[in-house]
Amino acid sequence: MQLRMTNQREIILRELKKSREHLTADELYERVKKSMPRISLATVYRNLEILSEAGIIAKLEMSGRQKRFDYDVREHDHIYCIKCQRVDNLELDRDAIRSVNYESDKGYSIQGYRLEVAGICPGCQQKLRSKENMS
Amino acid sequence: MQLRMTNQREIILRELKKSREHLTADELYERVKKSMPRISLATVYRNLEILSEAGIIAKLEMSGRQKRFDYDVREHDHIYCIKCQRVDNLELDRDAIRSVNYESDKGYSIQGYRLEVAGICPGCQQKLRSKENMS
DNA sequence: TTCTCTGCAAATAATTTGCACCCAT
DNA sequence: ATGGGTGCAAATTATTTGCAGAGAA
């Protein structure tokens, strides 16, 4: 199965790269529509699936509903805001986590792991503080 | 808001406790139906939500589509099978993970973390081996 | 009695798919 | 020209919600 570089695929990749955020399919759709108004959401979904399948982008399965997509395919972990769902990268030593012994567990053959940290982002901390001040 | 112990709630709790697995809402629904055929799936969803909100059970947001629910509310991590989606507990040292330094990251105030290990469960390893032998 | 809970059906949210046409290779 | 890609609408999957009646406290 050969991948073709269509116009829509190119723009999807460009927008994902440009933002450097961890966008959901519909967020990306909104941005892509600006340069290609007739593109369909299904095309965005299909391309995100195909491109992550091919290892060109990464699919993030975080807590919460929607999947997010990352232009950066290097293995890394994420931190997300429990208030606004925004997701940022975590720069931490994956080897240190790997050394936590979970190898022998339950007879599973281990394929990988995912550390997901939950927190409140600076923006939402700010909002909470101003709400406190009002009361 | 007072919680009432209805018949359906009791059975839902009993089945969740009995199985000691990490069931999805519809898996639980199928089991509960055996003792209470007229219960509705919406009631199962509502109860799982309310009970996890109240801290009586735990809601697991793992990779993949469906949420799973755990009778065991103690903090612990999970390993799941990438073939059959089954989820098992991981007994590992949470303090060791906590010591991986992610505190200062991005100005977030940290609320918690979740380590999710992916692997292939013994049952699915078996199936893969017999498939190999056939070819 | 009061207010939470339930069943049912309909609504929602996120994602996927069938189909006929389009266009990159 | 061939077969992957697209837009559109409809289908699917997981979950939630409105409502009127039921039942726990």
Written account of the structure:
2 copies of one chain form a homodimer. Chain A has 135 residues and is α+β, with helices and mostly antiparallel strands. Chain A has 2 domains: 1-74, Arc Repressor Mutant, subunit A (Orthogonal Bundle); 75-135, Ferric-uptake regulator, C-terminal dimerisarion domain (Dna Ligase, domain 1, 2-Layer Sandwich), CATH 3.30.1490.190. Chain A has helices at residues 7-19, 25-35, 41-53, 94-98, 122-134, and strands spanning 23-24, 58-60, 68-70, 77-81, 87-90, 109-120. A 3-stranded antiparallel beta sheet of chain A has the order 1-3-2. In chain A, a hairpin with a 5-residue loop joins strand 4 and strand 5. In chain A, helix 2 packs across helix 3 (41-53). The longest helix of chain A has 13 residues, at 7-19. The model of chain A has no long low-confidence stretch (mean pLDDT 91). At the A-B interface, strand 6 of A face strand 6 of B. Strand 6 (109-120) of chain A pairs antiparallel with strand 6 (109-120) of chain B. The first copy, chain A, binds a DNA duplex (25 and 25 nucleotides) through helix 1 and helix 3.
